[in-house]
């Protein structure tokens, strides 16, 4: 029986890829999930695993070929050589099997981390060596640049070995630990074999063929082989590695960055009372992206204020009926989301992004909703928010917020946003200037509702007021467009019936 190997989903807006490297050749035995080849897109590198065990019968797309999504890459003959493939894929495990009482040792591997994420840091182990674990019980937590990932036990048994202790940086598909299904400790012979494999891999690292696209780009740029640090499998230089090297060289030639100022001397009595904690990967990424946004975009902020009287009255009148029918509370975020979607239709450049010398207008709204978590700020995305009802928006925000606080958001849930709303009012903020979430061109800052005296029809009245702030990229959004957007949001919130009438 023959099984087809096809190009997997490459990610949002990516329609084709280049076959960079084949790790197998026709006639080779392959195991299930063993890596067959590596594809390069203009954004990420994608590894293609084997869907079945068997023998690689035919390679349809050779190295250097450009293929579309779902294109045929190869054919695998199932069954033939499956046992050999399993043995070849895990020789160390095969050798250790007899000593581990019938080969009952189960490896705990790094789970799928998400598109473009190649490594993670082991943050916390919930179990220790010798502990009994149940299947699907949480063993440890990994931190990536964007999300926290919990690793469940693939089988019940005893945790016999922790390969990657806390603080270790591990690559995708690396081994984290070993579980003995029978409760017996595995033979230690496998450890020297694993240790011996590391020097061997390092010794042969530069014999690995670099990706075709990377070699072509290095030749065009006049870069010598070995001058670029590779991040691909076994140190293979990928296209993005060359791009980073060229960008770093250009930046250094243009303006050498000054060294970071050393920390001022601290008195001994103060130093003894300090605590130094390494920044999490998520916090490092937040810091880097925020600074990149300031360095890249021409960020400007415009302000307005909105009278929340009508929204609060409408919410008070219908909140009980709304919750009874839809099973979710009626909050303010659905009103603001609807108002922003309405305003983005009139001022589409606020919902657009710059791509080189092009402006990409989005005929949809994927609304990012900034959420503070114990790990840091994350921005889950409500896709096609412009097509949602109030109830659908409230349910989506509640569900995403809960997953964010639990650290269970996936990469896909935080990608593709076209506009962002940040609500600092829940923390008591009266006024702020939010920073853009690249590559977006606009972000709306909400703030606390405060009773203030306002002049209404010549009379002074107390009204619940909120300051609104729109930060925007002045490279693409003019002042007129930004002010118009904020005025439309204000009008929709001060008279919510405009949202129903599409006015």
What does it look like?
The chain has 503 residues and is α+β, with helices and mostly antiparallel strands. The chain has helices at 82-89, 91-96, 190-203, 212-221, 239-254, 268-271, 281-296, 309-326, 333-346, 390-405, 479-494, 497-501; strands spanning 2-6, 16-22, 29-30, 35-40, 45-49, 54-59, 66-68, 72-78, 105-109, 119-125, 132-133, 138-143, 148-152, 157-162, 169-171, 175-180, 299-307, 353-355, 358-360, 367-369, 371-373, 376-378, 381-382, 419-423, 442-446, 450-456, 459-473. Strands 17, 20, 23, 24, 25, 26 and 27 form a seven-stranded mixed beta sheet that branches. Strands 1-8-6-3 form a four-stranded antiparallel beta sheet. It is globular and about 85 Å long. Mean pLDDT is 80; it is low at 81-102, 186-206 and 253-259.
Short description:
This protein is an alpha+beta fold. It has 12 helices and 27 strands. The termini are far apart.
Task: Classify the secondary structure makeup into a structural class.
Answer: alpha+beta
In CATH, the topology of the largest domain is named Chloramphenicol Acetyltransferase
* CATH superfamily descriptor of the largest domain: Chloramphenicol acetyltransferase-like domain
Low-confidence residue ranges? 81-102, 186-206, 253-259
Indicate how many domains the architecture comprises. Answer: 3
Using only CA atoms, what is the Rg?
27 Å
What is the annotated CATH architecture of the largest domain? 2-Layer Sandwich
The largest sheet is:
7 strands, mixed
> What portion of the residues fall into strands of 2 or more residues?
25-35%
Q: What is the CATH class name of the largest domain?
A: Alpha Beta
Q: What average pLDDT do the residues reach? A: 80
Helix content: 25-40%
Number of separate strands: 27
Q: Note the total helix count.
A: 12
Q: How widely separated are the two ends?
A: 61 Å
Shape field: globular
């Amino acid at each position: 029986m023959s099984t087809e190997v096809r190009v997997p989903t490459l990610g949002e807006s990516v329609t084709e890829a280049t076959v960079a490297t084949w790790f197998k050749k026709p006639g080779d035995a392959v195991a299930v999930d063993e890596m067959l080849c590596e594809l390069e897109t203009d954004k990420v590198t994608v590894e293609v695993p084997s869907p079945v065990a068997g023998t690689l019968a035919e390679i349809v797309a050779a190295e250097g070929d450009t293929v579309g999504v779902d294109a045929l890459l190869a054919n695998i003959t199932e069954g033939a050589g499956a046992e050999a493939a399993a043995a070849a894929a895990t020789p160390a495990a095969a050798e250790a099997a007899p000593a581990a009482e019938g080969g009952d040792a189960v490896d705990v591997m790094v789970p799928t981390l998400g598109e473009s994420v190649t490594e993670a840091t082991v943050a916390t182990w919930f179990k220790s060596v010798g502990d009994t674990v149940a299947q699907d019980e949480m063993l440890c937590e990994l931190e990536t640049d964007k999300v926290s990932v919990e690793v469940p036990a693939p089988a019940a048994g005893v945790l016999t070995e922790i390969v990657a202790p806390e603080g270790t940086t591990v690559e995708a598909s690396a081994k984290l630990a070993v579980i003995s299904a029978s409760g017996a400790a595995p033979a230690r012979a496998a450890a020297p074999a694993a240790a011996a494999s590391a020097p061997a891999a390092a010794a042969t690292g530069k014999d690995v063929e670099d990706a075709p696209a990377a070699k072509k780009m290095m030749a065009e740029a006049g870069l010598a082989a070995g001058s670029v640090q590779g991040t691909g499998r076994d140190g293979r230089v990928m296209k993005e590695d060359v791009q980073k090297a060229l960008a770093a060289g250009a930046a250094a030639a243009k303006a050498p960055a000054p060294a970071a100022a050393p920390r001022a001397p601290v008195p001994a009595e103060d130093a003894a009372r300090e605590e130094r904690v390494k920044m999490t990967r998520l916090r490092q990424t937040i810091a880097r992206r925020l600074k990149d946004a300031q360095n890249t975009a021409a960020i400007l902020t415009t302000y307005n204020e909105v009278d929340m009287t009508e929204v609060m009255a409408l919410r008070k009148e219908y909140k009980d009926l709304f919750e009874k029918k839809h099973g979710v509370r009626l909050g303010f975020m659905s009103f603001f989301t609807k108002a922003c979607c309405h305003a983005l239709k009139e001022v589409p450049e606020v919902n657009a992004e710059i791509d080189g010398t092009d402006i990409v207008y989005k005929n949809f709204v994927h609304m990012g909703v900034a959420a503070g978590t114990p790990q840091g700020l994350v921005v889950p995305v409500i896709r096609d928010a412009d097509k949602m009802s109030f109830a659908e928006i409230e349910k989506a925000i509640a569900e995403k917020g809960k997953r964010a606080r639990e650290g269970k958001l996936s990469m896909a849930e935080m990608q593709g946003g076209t506009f962002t709303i940040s609500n600092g009012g829940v923390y008591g903020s009266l006024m702020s200037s939010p920073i853009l979430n690249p590559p977006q061109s606009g972000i709306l800052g909400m703030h606390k509702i405060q009773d203030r005296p306002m002049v209404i029809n010549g009379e002074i009245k107390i009204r619940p007021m909120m300051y609104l702030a729109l930060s925007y990229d002045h490279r693409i959004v003019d002042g007129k467009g930004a002010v118009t957007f904020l005025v439309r949001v204000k009008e929709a919130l001060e008279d919510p019936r405009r949202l129903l009438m599409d006015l």
